[in-house]
Structure formats: structure tokens, C-alpha cells
Amino acid sequence: MHWSSYINFDPPLEGYRVMVSENGGPATLLGTTSPNDTSLTHNGVVPGSQYCYYIQAFDSAGMTSSSNIRCTVITKPNQPKFVYLRYATVRNNDKVKIGFFVDTTSFITRYKLLRSEDGLNFDTIAFLPPNNLTANVSYVDATALVNDKSYFYKVVVVDSCNLDVLTSNPGRTIFLSGDVSNYLYNNISWNAYEDRVPLGYNLYREIEDFEPYNKIQSFLSTTTSYIDDVGNYTQSGGRFRYTIEAPLFDVFDTIFPFTDTVRSNEILLLQSPRLYVPNAFSPNGMNNIFKPIGVFTEKDNYEFIIYDRWGQKVFETKDYNEGWDGKFMGRLSEVGIYTYFIHITNAFDKTFNKRGTVMLIR
């Protein structure tokens, strides 16, 4: 309630009494204010009831002056009936997109988006205004550290009276991690998506500069780890990138079917490179081409040079697949010891040089 100040008391005005009557009952004192306070809030009103108010100014001598009477019937806007968090998925390996389904027939003030790292302690990270034109609302959390951890999300609906009235189900992102503890094997693990149960998990792998992203394995929803044997890819650069995809399907409130897909972050696992160089070869024998054999080594910036005992360069190539046939200027070189130099890049983007000797025999 708001009212105008009373003027003309002598002795001066002491304050105001706010009187209220509910549904035609007797007027009772709702509250008292100071002479300078001309407003009061009536809390705890009952929807559907009629309230009639009037203001009574008073002084220290007991004199009073009453205002007009103002009546109102308390109405309450439609309350939201549901809010459903559909998905929380990693996007572009640097953010989380959250999607939720809301009741568009209700009158609300806003949505609050909550985030937690442990599923117990939630913090408000965003306020979203209502939009009654669409029941599907989304938000992008650009502050999430998707390559460090998994996050829980919930949505709270704030009604027209600024009260938190509904909280959604939680959603948890998939965090993928891995290591290379055994040569030729990549160990991969992830947490289960919550709280919608996935139809399963699909594992995708990319071998950089060798093979694009492909689905390599599908799992039941109870599986959260896998060991990838990469022994067939030793001719690659040894850089393996992975991500997990989980298809979701359920029917919310027995009416609304939802089909969604969530993805994890991406991880890059590096297999350690190895370089094998023969110590002898015979141009006329079975081992008639001399070249290094690289495992998980990059082929770019490759260089292979051979010198004779006097330091003369007898062979040079930048083609990883090309080796020395033991000839120099079209003629077979002499039997003896030759020096080689190899410049190559490994899966960790580091270059290294290798020098050694090889025996040319007949």
C-alpha cells in the first residue's frame, strides 16, 4: 500500500496505522509506520480472498484521521508446472551447451542456471529471461573448463513473485580422459552421463594427418573405459584424438518424447616415436635398400643424408619412403663404412637428429 501524508495535526503526527479486513470480516491492525513512512507490504495473502484497507493517521493526543477504503481481490498468475533439463553437452571442445524444456503457459520472472562440480554444491552462473514463444530454451556456458572436469547443471524457475518454485532434474557433462601407459595401447575413460540414461556410448577417433574422425567402437551405457590397440597405425605420426558421443531418448511426463545427443571433450594421446636404423646392408642381397624405419614419426621436415669415409655426400632425400641403393652417380659404391644423418619430427612436435654408421657389404 502507498498513501499520501496527512497534514494539520497539532500536536504533530505520530504515525500511521494500516487496517485490513479479509472477506468482509472486522478490520484489524496490519501494521504501524512512522510519520515519514507512507507505504507497507502485506505478506502472506491468500489467493482468491478479498482484502479491504484503510489508513489511520494519529497524534500523541489520541486524535485520528482515516483515509478512504481500498479493496482488492488477490489473484495469482498461472504457476509453472514443469521444467526439464534435456541435455548438457560439450561444444567445440571449449564450452557447454545446456538445453531445457519449460512450461510456456506460466507467468514467471526468470530462469536461474545452476552449476556444480560435485553435484552437491551449486552456484548460480546465469539468469535467463522468460520467452513464452518457445518451450525449448538453451544457454551456452563459455566459462566451463571442459578439458579439466565434468560439471552438473540444474535449472530453477522463478515465478512472478520472485520465488523459486521449481527445480529441474540435473544434467552432467561427459569428461573424457586417457593416458599412454603401454606402448601401442591408448587407455581411455569417461564418466557416465547423468541423469538421463544414454542408449549407449560411441567412441570416435582421429589419427592426425592419417585418418579423419571415425566411430571405432560402441558400448553399453554401463561401460566407461576402453583400451585402444593402435599397433596397426605405426606409420602414422602417433597423434590420436578421441571424443565420446552419447545418444539420449526418453519420454518426459509420458507426453513429450525427446531425442538428443551429447558429446564429451576431446583428448589427444601421443604415442612415443621410435626409429630403427640397420647397421649393415648389401645392395645385391635381400636387404638391398638402406633406410630408417620410423614408428609414430612425422613425415614432414624429414631429411636423410649419407656420406662416404672422405666426407663426400653420396645420397640425400627428403622423401621418407626413399632409401639408398648403394650407388653414387649411377655406379655401385665401394664396400666399407658410411656415415648417415637423419632429421625427423616426432608426435610431440619436436625434431631430433640422429647420426650413425652403416656397413655396405657385398
What can you see in these coordinates?
This protein has 362 residues and is mainly β. It has 4 domains: 13-73; 83-172, Sandwich (Immunoglobulin-like), CATH 2.60.40.10; 176-262, Immunoglobulin-like, CATH 2.60.40.10; 274-360, Immunoglobulin-like (Sandwich). The chain has no helices and 29 strands. It has strands at residues 13-22, 28-33, 50-59, 64-66, 70-73, 83-91, 95-102, 108-116, 123-128, 136-141, 152-159, 164-167, 171-172, 176-182, 185-190, 201-207, 211-219, 225-229, 239-252, 256-270, 274-276, 280-281, 293-295, 297-307, 313-317, 327-328, 331-332, 336-346, 351-360. The strands form 8 sheets. Strands 1, 2, 3, 4 and 5 form a 5-stranded antiparallel beta sheet that branches. Strands 8, 9, 11, 12 and 13 form a 5-stranded antiparallel beta sheet that branches. A 5-stranded mixed beta sheet has the order 22-29-28-24-25, with no helix packed on it. A hairpin with a 3-residue loop joins strand 16 and strand 17.
Give the structure's gist in a few sentences.
The protein is an all-beta fold. The protein is 0% helix and 54% strand. It has four domains: 13-73; 83-172, Immunoglobulin-like (Sandwich), CATH 2.60.40; 176-262, Immunoglobulins (Immunoglobulin-like); 274-360, Sandwich (Immunoglobulin-like).
Please work out how many helical segments DSSP would assign. Answer: 0
Q: Regarding CATH, which class of the largest domain?
A: Mainly Beta
Kindly state the number of beta strands.
29
CATH homologous superfamily classification of the largest domain: Immunoglobulins
> How many domains?
4
Assign a percent range to the helix content. under 10%
Poorly predicted sequence stretches spanning 5 or more consecutive residues = none
Amino- and carboxy-terminal Cα gap = 110 Å
Q: What letter string, H or E per element, gives the SSE order?
A: EEEEEEEEEEEEEEEEEEEEEEEEEEEEE
Cα shape:
rod-shaped
